[in-house]
Amino acid sequence: MAGRSVNQVKNEVHEVAIFREMVRKEQRYQKLITEYAFNPFHQVHAVTGKPMSWHDNLEQEVNPTYLSMIHKVTLEPTKKYTEPQTSAQEIGWITTPLINLDRTDRRFNFPHYKTDITTYMEEAWRQKEQSTNLQ
């Protein structure tokens, strides 16, 4: 029985103490750098302007064919092509309604309207909500 090892139970206090000691050791060798400077021995390269930026390219002439090509690329597919190019474009390709809506036709138009009971219950519900919010 003397060769049997005793399992030591770790509790939360010991774990926090070990963690605190580990953090102190890490902070001892860390150095926080807050001031930055350019290396004088390293050559700095100039960064070119952005190609689609209007304020960088005001002094240059704009090619009209290039502009028309850019405008054509930004159009939605239904204005670029006469028919869908992929099977995913077939869904929603025709966006115009099949029939014109007539709001006066009571067969297809069901507007919301209130009866005496619905207005009463709406007011009762509103008063109930206000009284529960006050408590």
UniProtKB/TrEMBL annotation:
GO terms for cellular component: ciliary base; cytoskeleton. The gene is LOC117366741. It comes from Geotrypetes seraphini. Belongs to the CFAP144 family. The keyword Cytoplasm applies. This is Protein FAM183B-like. It comes from the Eukaryota. Keywords: Cell projection, Cytoplasm, Cytoskeleton. Pfam families: FAM183. It is found in: Cell projection, Cilium; Cytoplasm, Cytoskeleton.
